[in-house]
Amino acid sequence: MRFTKMHGAGNDYVYVDCFNEKVPQDIPDLARRISDRHFGVGGDGLILIHPSDVADARMQMLNADGSEAEMCGNGIRCVAKYVYDHGLARSQNLRIQTGAGILALDLEVVDGLAKRITVDMGEPILEPHLIPTTLSGSDATGTGTTAALTAKPVIDAPLNIDGQELAVTCVSMGNPHCITYVERLSDDWVLGLGPKVENDSHFPNRVNAEFVEIISPDEIRMRVWERGSGETWACGTGACAVCVAGVLSGRTGREILAHLPGGDLRLAWREDTNHIFMTGPAEEVFSGDWPG
């Protein structure tokens, strides 16, 4: 089976072109084996690129532990790059079908290859039961929040983890996120509390845990403990969720630059459409043949 290793801001996955390759029989098992950084190709998970009847391609994403996820913001940029660069669709405006719906992407092409990609990530989901979380919503919101809210969002809600009370804001971008603002990022937050937040009983489908340090109202630094994969170098949906959380809690504006361990992402939560737009890189690393 032919595969291609790609990454978006260091968030790396193994990609399989199912336009031209046979779909594996046991996809979760393949995801676990091929993602192993010691005995496999190595990556944060596996992404299959399928034909689609309603879009240019369909993205199927599995985490490194074999669990299937709805979406990946960095992964979808790489899917768009692969689709364009390998001639599956040669438009600079692509539509990719995901578990969270069909998303539109605009490609910046240099010398015939897609380099930077902007994704319309759609509207954030703020209703607690849809995220899903059993944490209670709050009446308090920051300035400039959208009028489209239909339920109380979870903003700076208390969450007790091992006797330590966090103030968390919850957002879904088609997948669930729990954001905690900290004075200084550290391993104690991400590696120590991240897996405990992921598996906390308030999140019935588990959750991605973001820890955020504010530099200014339009610039932040963040690290992410991803559901099913552990800490990753970047998380596109997580960065979008942080953009929303900053507005809801009054900490940041609607346009921010997010610094992640693997690189930078630009986010904009547009008030006129309620959509979030994410811009970042996509890179192809190498291709090979998987024997298993």
Task: Provide structural commentary.
It is a single chain. The protein has 292 residues and is of the alpha+beta class. It has 2 domains: 2-120 and 282-289, Diaminopimelate Epimerase, Chain A, domain 1; 128-274, Roll (Diaminopimelate Epimerase, Chain A, domain 1), CATH 3.10.310. It is built from 4 helices and 18 strands. It has an 18-stranded mixed sheet that branches. It is globular and about 50 Å long. It starts with a strand and ends with a strand.
State the shape: globular
* Named CATH architecture of the largest domain: Roll
**Could you say which structural class the secondary elements and strand pairing correspond to?**
alpha+beta
Major sheet: size, sense and barrel closure?
18 strands, mixed
Distinct helical segment count: 4
Return residue spans where pLDDT drops below 50 for at least 5 consecutive residues: 143-148
Number of strands: 18
CATH topology name of the largest domain = Diaminopimelate Epimerase, Chain A, domain 1
Please provide the ordered H/E string of secondary-structure elements. Answer: EEHEEEHEEEEEEHEEEHEEEE
CATH class of the largest domain: Alpha Beta
Average pLDDT reading: 94
Q: CATH homologous superfamily of the largest domain? A: Diaminopimelate Epimerase, Chain A, domain 1
Percent range for β-strand residues: 35-45%
- The first-to-last residue Cα distance is 8 Å
